[in-house]
Amino acid sequence: MLSKGKEYITAITSMLDRIIEEQAESIDKAADIITSGLLNDHALFAYGNIHSAFTIGDLYIRAGGLALLNQITAPVLSSLEYDPAALWVGMERLEGYGKLVFDTTPAKEGDVLIVVSTSGRNAVPIEMAENAKAKGLKVVVLTSMPYTLYQPSRYSSGKRLYEFADVVIDNCAIPGDAILKTDGLEVPFCPTSGVIDTALLQTVMAEVIERLVKAGANPPVYIAGNLDGYGEYRAKFEENCNHNKYRIFYIPLI
What we know:
single chain; alpha/beta; 5-stranded parallel beta sheet
């Protein structure tokens, strides 16, 4: 019989029910910012370090996903391929790296950048948002306000990620993120941010895609390559992507 597993699912479900009510206004505003940018021929980017990058990856070149999304990747910080872990832990705190990563993107004034960081205190995501704002981009931040306000920033200015946002979506993760406890184990286990962030990002994109369709924009959306009929759809999808090639910065085919 499930015990802690059921407790975890119950906790996640409860968090999602609460968040969709508490964050509805922020989700709506984020969807408006992204939709407005796309309708005005701007580009959409998203960035996160390590596990935050994984939640963005659930949107990127994914069946049912919007092909206009560009995931920004950074060496060491976009996967778990590098050992030891101390390398990427140190890199996400390295000042100057976020600016370097942002400056090598094709982002321009009027574009939109989504930045995901649950703690909101490390230098790289903060620099991404800071430099995006300075260049005239709109910035959507997905973070945990309880977590980020719990302890000081690691960035030399003392600023946290949310302070550079046009809109903040709060994933409501507790400090430390993990929520389960059991006798005989000193530390809590099973984090919430990965599941919640993925759901929140998909919620925002659901709103964006619907609004683009209602505006007559014909957004390019991926279909699963494992479905019969994929070949017929792909030709139309490729044509749509070609119309948007000025703001799609990867090969958008699956």
